[in-house]
Specification:
The structure holds 2 protein chains of 2 kinds. Chain A is an alpha/beta fold. Chain A has 11 helices and 16 strands. Chain A starts with 5 loop residues before the first helix and ends in a 5-residue tail after the last helix. Among the domains of chain B are: 155 residues, Roll (Ubiquitin-like (UB roll)), CATH 3.10.20.440; 194 residues, 3-Layer(bba) Sandwich (FAD/NAD(P)-binding domain), CATH 3.50.50.60; 67 residues, Arc Repressor Mutant, subunit A (Orthogonal Bundle); 91 residues, Aminomethyltransferase beta-barrel domains (Alpha-Beta Plaits); 97 residues, Elongation Factor Tu (Ef-tu), domain 3. In chain B, the strands form 13 sheets. In chain B, strands 8, 9, 12, 13, 14, 15 and 29 form a 7-stranded mixed beta sheet that branches. A 7-stranded mixed beta sheet of chain B has the order 43-44-45-46-42-36-47. A 6-stranded antiparallel beta sheet of chain B has the order 49-50-51-48-53-52. Classes of the chains: A alpha/beta, B alpha+beta. At the A-B interface, helix 1, helix 3, helix 4, helix 6 and helix 8 of A face strand 6, helix 3, helix 4, helix 13 and helix 14 of B. Bound molecules: flavin-adenine dinucleotide. Chain B: Pfam families: Fer2_4, GCV_T, GCV_T_C, Pyr_redox_2, SO_alpha_A3.
Amino acid sequence: MTHFSAFSLLKNALTGHKNWTEQWPDSQPKAEYDVVIVGAGGHGLGAAYYLAKEHGITNVAVIDKGWLGGGNTGRNTTIIRSNYLYDESARLYDHSVDLWENLSQELNYNVMYSRRGVLMLAHNVHDVQSFKRHIHSNRLNGVDNRWLTPEECKAYCPPLSISKSARYPVMGGALQERAGTARHDAVAWGYARGAAARGVDIIQNCPVTAIRRNADGSVAGVETARGFIRAKKVGVSAAGHTSVVMQTAEVRLPLESYPLQALVSEPVKPVFPCVVMSNAVHAYISQSDKGELVIGSGTDQYTSYSQRGGLPLIEHTVAAIAEVFPIFNRMRMLRKWGGIVDVTPDRSAIISKTPVEGLYVNCGWGTGGFKATPGAAHTFAWTIAKDEPHPINAPFTMERFRTGRLIDEAAAAAVAH
Amino acid sequence: MSGNRVAGKGRVDVGKSVRFTFDGKPFVGLKGDTVSSALLANGVHLMGRSFKYHRPRGPVAAGSEEPNALIGTRRGPGRFEPNTRATVQEIWQGLETTSQNKYPSLKWDIGAVNDAAYMLFSAGFYYKTFMWPKSFWHRVYEPFIRAAAGLGVSPTEEDPDTYASRFLHCDVLVVGAGPAGLAAARAAAVDGLKVVLVDENAEVGGSLLSEPQALVDGQRAWDWLAAEVEALKAAGVRIMTRTTAIGYYHQNMIGMVERLTDHLSDLPADTPRERMWRVRAKRVVLAQGALEKPLVFHGNDCPGVMLAGSAQTYLNRYGVLVGQRPVILTSHDSAWFAAFDLADAGAQVQAIVDTRESVRDDLLAEAGKRGIRLKIGHTATATKGRLRVTSLRVNPVTDGKVGAGYVIGCDAVLMSGGWTPSLHLFSHTRGSLAWDEDLTTFLPKDTPENCVIAGASRGLWGVEAVLNDGADKGRAVAADLGGTGGETACSVASDRTGTGVSHTELPTDLNPGKAKAFVDYQNDVTAKDLRLAVREGMRSIEHVKRYTTNGMATDQGKMSNINGLNIAADALGKKQPQVGLTTFRPPYTPTSFGAFAGYHRGAHFEVTRKTRIDGWAEENGAVFEPVGQWRRAWHFPKPGEDMDTAVRRECVATRQSVGIFDASTLGKIEVVGPDAVEFMNRMYTNPWTKLAPGRCRYGLLCGDDGFIRDDGVIGRLTTDRFHVTTTTGGAARVLNMMEDYLQTEWPDLNVWLTSTTEQWATIALNGPKAAALLAPLVEGVDLTDEAFPHMSCVECTVAGMPARLFRVSFTGEIGFEVNVPAPRGRTLWEVLWEAGRQYDICAYGTETMHVLRAEKGYIIVGQDTDGTVTPKDAGLDWAVGKSKPDFVGKRGMARPDLTSEGRKQLVGLLTEDHSRLEEGAQIVFDPTQALPMTMVGHVTSSYHSDAVGRPIALALVEGGHGRMGETVHIPMPDRTIAAKITPMVFVDPDNARLKI
Ligand SMILES: Cc1cc2nc3c(=O)[nH]c(=O)nc-3n(C[C@H](O)[C@H](O)[C@H](O)COP(=O)(O)OP(=O)(O)OC[C@H]3O[C@@H](n4cnc5c(N)ncnc54)[C@H](O)[C@@H]3O)c2cc1C
């Protein structure tokens, strides 16, 4: 692996960039691995990286049906924050943010973790109550999050309209300064490069068609478009398609898959300093380093595996942005796309052993798993390596849906009166 | 008229000059010009600067695919937009335009130092550096990178324009009004089929506008076009220009944006700026045409280097010569015709440089006739000129060897790398593509949608072929819809057809490592960058695109995708289909936010639902709060009162005499049918069988997980009819949930569900004087405690109106809820108000309602519960029909964790120092512990209570029901508050006031 630095960049610039080498090779599958990870998103690649680096397990393959990082990892709006309500979530996401802060150095790949602050807007009394609850809980958990008045919100994010006559006026906001964004592709690529350097095979364009089990029920390996690959352990991290893959091992998961859409505007000079989320009007926005406004919406209304997404939702999302930031009304949308997200009943993830020996699953990240990438990958690797969960992901079992011990972040933000 | 305008050419209006400015300097163009054509007519090629290297750029195209000539456009205050394509924006009197991404001026731009350091800014350079020292990232590097972002500047003012949106249903939608689209529309417009023809241009005609030499059935192209438009209109075809089909969605739904005012000098008073059309078409014909590819060589971005076809457009459509001394550089026959057109219009064509070894004889002869110098079998290796091209360096290529270069002076280089079909909308449908080796391009194959492709978008060439293909497709589509299809085969004379070859970078004798041969102009992606990406292991075209940003500019890869693919495939040593094409995403061209938002702005962002009594509340000084889409009266301050004082007054008045409250927003669902009672038994936790008609009951609804979802009082009017009420915010959700169960789980039940929320106005009277006030107005019911006790309901007449009357209470006082048909709500309110004067009736809002119900220990779902609270946790175990065989949530609430010890349970809290707690504050048992603290619950509701004489609160506390009298602690940022756990009911625990 070529070490990246300003020096190596300069040196290579002088030689016409001819001497850079592959960041990861295009591996062909071997007959057998200690661990096969299904899904080369940030989570799957990261898990392989930590398996190799922290647990010394290097006979690992990450297999993807497409190109690595082409799933939700490469489609998301990259909001990173950790001001979740419940202790279990706060611990997991804060663990992630800790890892984010050093990830560029860790991977020797600039993932551009940008601590630009995430501001969540409150538009009604219920929002205010709910955000204050989060802030109090975060404070006692040692997680940064504070309340801003509408005027303070405006000062923090000048394009914001705090007009009292707005349809849903801003009543304040919760700000996590440590939160921000990162460069999504770089996360996948950085983990891929780091994992490959430690001996992990990354196998692309190779759909896993089934998980095969031994006569005793334990996992035997995976059937793929390029034949059967034996594996002592299999970890599935296939986001919106996880339930489909797991079904082949006769493991049913409480997941529903929905299209989630996002869009960018044409690029403009810096105008938007932070990230703003507004759950009440359903819009999320930040500005990329290229200058595009990056805007996310809520999930489509129906379950689907089609990544196209519908027009009405986009109309609603853009209307919401133009409502909260009226100066953007004459900006133009450049491009929109969708991804398929896997949603659990309590909107919290599953990082867990399964009833099948040797089979592990990391899923249910729904609309918000990018921020968890390092933390989830790290604890998933631990779970696979040790055949038991890390204390941080121990509560995020599959079992909880049977016992009722939910981590209900959705409920924490539910609206009713 | 300036020297670049050619008399007798173009469709611009020579009689109408139009003044506009560019970077403050006045210019004159003609009506019908775009900014680009008008500036070119004035000899201006330099229109912008590129993104990364700030290189000087001029227009390379003449249409919406333009990557370079992006400008700011302004029409007075509030009307500014960045990144407008100069090639699309029509000029109008007074238009102000500005160049972008430059400082201090377009000609002298400091940012151009990046260009000198270009070797450092290779593809993906930022992933490799800016990491040390770590602390520098946040403070130095990141701000530096972010400051370099963007092209134009964002608008800063609110947009004064309006936007509209419409639906359109048609039989056939034809996208693209070039010859193929025109013919398709004509052939499909038979037997009354409703046909719509759209084009993004200001007028229809497509390529005929750029190349008018063809004779269609003996008629000159533009005469034929004019006649054809008339014929289409006569056939009832709806022609929509300046309308872009931006996206192709599921089930033949096409989004289209019509631009109505951006080309007008005077804004009509009542016209929206843009209109979003949502079209549902039975069949779609995609006739989007083809896009010309640039050639990739060192210096191919110098202003004055332009697509040959675009030069033809400027000449034939706008009457503008883009250069007096152009050189043609091509690998395709089509550019030869550009040479001929320009030569015939008076340009001194310096040379035709063709990369191919041999060229058709007729072209050679035509060139010879015009005395044009020919350089067959040549490559181009450089351009010269900083702000405008001054020469092209060309070299002979023999047997793959590049010979010595020499320079041809020129003022424009017109290039053609061949053509590629416009597959964007087809790609939106998730249509599959097939690689055509001869054309070196992808062609459309299969699509899940009901659409066909016609003309140049499927690789056809020449007006005759395209016209007849369009007609065939139109006929086929009509036949598919039961029409007979028109007979419209055409014959075309002076048609131009041609072929060509495709290149990666043009061969060169210079150091390719130093070449600035651009593929994506706007993003400054060079061929070298693409090869570097491949060298670094990017094998999929998606990786290459993301690593280099090729194809991610505002032209959405229209100029760069195919060239980028060819180069990446070459670098990988693979065939193009193995590398794949990136997916084109909507919108086809950048589309204003306003067009998407449409009417949904300001007050219309979402409907504001108002009750029939809202007007009275407004007239009487109410302060409102938004609750979902509703606005509800929050409190009714008297002059000088703040919210607290008003609420305290309203509370006292209600407890002492009578308060009146608008409860119309409560969700209402009529559950009717022979199986209604069974349905209710299954949906709600409570048993309903024994509830007699004329009685009501507090109903509790759980999800299948066993957690509380909603609640409300439900009256049984007759054996088969229930009047269900829900929370205000839950109305739609509950109805959906009911329908879901009814239709999917219990289709056997004979039950109808109807939302009646807006059919009834609901007025609540609460207080000791409520019955006295109401009784005289009620006919047919005796309102005594004996005849109409708490939890009764009846259909009767109130103040002469048909009504449903409930005796229920959400305050702990005697209460009635009167439902009358919504239109009569306000009348009833006023009658009650008048009748109540003698009792000092007081109108109260939602805040008082909250206080009164909290004093009485009634929960609000969504505030005191959050989706993790079971009936038992909320102290509502009594509302669960344990002996019922099944109901939604029964199994869920039996799960181990929902029945275990130590769950958070709803209790009352009284602070020891009589301070009021903050809602959402967290509760701990041990206030001295270090962070992170073990939290055992939180405050759900908290109010000052005059009835209790101190603040009260409700809270969820771990094991709360078993901790009565214990002290808990609420750590706040500045201090920790101690509070005692109490029962939830603070007022009238024995229900003496309710008389039960
Ligand atoms: C539009 C959008 C916006 C979002 N915004 C945010 C945000 O702002 N913040 C945030 O934190 N999160 C966000 N998310 C969520 C976030 O993107 C995901 O939770 C996260 O990236 C998931 O990473 P992953 O590695 O698990 O999944 P992915 O990156 O989707 O990786 C899963 C991989 O599995 C592969 N796969 C699937 N089936 C098979 C098979 N049978 N065989 C082989 N391979 C298979 C897929 O090809 C894919 O590459 C957003 C998501 C979307 C779609």
